[in-house]
Amino acid sequence: MIAKLKGRLDSTGLDHAIIDVGGVGYLVGASSRTLAALGSIGEAVTIHTEMLVAADSIRLVGFARAEERDWYRLLTHVQGVGSRVALAILSALEPLELHRAVAMGDKAMIARANGVGPKLAQRIVNELKDKIGATPAGGPIDAGGVAMLPTGSFAADALSALQNLGFKPHEASTAVASAEAEMGDDASLDALVRLALRKAAK
């Protein structure tokens, strides 16, 4: 399993990037939002990945942030949402916007993505609403009453650490966001993970 690539951005296309890691070029499918976040050709990049294994192929899909990868996994478990549609949704909506849309049942916002009609948008809302935890206890809440996703510099690494320990995406997200709110932006990764673990275990 390839979970992350760290190397140099070799080139980009409409829906992919090539990451040079020690002289080996990895072709990574990506949303337009992730491609825009990678920076300029030749620059050092780190990209979170999901490896798709089929009978006749192995593909990598990449994400600038771990929470995008988590949403990709959630979306592709919905009937009718394949990799291409999931990336189209992540191109159209930030993770926080997607979280808000699902939590509030806003199928029109999800239907803004290419290839997503009203019926599929409704199915996404129906299947994911309970999984993401619309207003989990202990999580910071925005003005609309929706749980906030963590956004600090160590948030993606902290989220990944908790999920590697077996916590579900929404549990890890809520715990990290709550820990960030309590500790502030200057917290170290180690301290953030320790506090998030205590909150997630409650």
Automatic annotation (TrEMBL):
ATP-binding in keyword set: yes
InterPro entries: DNA_helicase_Holl-junc_RuvA_I, Hlx-hairpin-Hlx_DNA-bd_motif, NA-bd_OB-fold, RuvA, RuvA_2-like, RuvA_C, RuvA_C_sf
This protein's name: Holliday junction branch migration complex subunit RuvA
Entry function: The RuvA-RuvB-RuvC complex processes Holliday junction (HJ) DNA during genetic recombination and DNA repair, while the RuvA-RuvB complex plays an important role in the rescue of blocked DNA replication forks via replication fork reversal (RFR). RuvA specifically binds to HJ cruciform DNA, conferring on it an open structure. The RuvB hexamer acts as an ATP-dependent pump, pulling dsDNA into and through the RuvAB complex. HJ branch migration allows RuvC to scan DNA until it finds its consensus sequence, where it cleaves and resolves the cruciform DNA.
Pfam families: HHH_5 (PF14520), RuvA_C (PF07499), RuvA_N (PF01330)
Gene that this sequence comes from: ruvA
Organism: Sphingobium xenophagum
Keywords, ordered alphabetically: ATP-binding, Cytoplasm, DNA damage, DNA recombination, DNA repair, DNA-binding, Helicase, Hydrolase, Nucleotide-binding
UniProt GO BP: DNA recombination; DNA repair
Entry's localization field: Cytoplasm
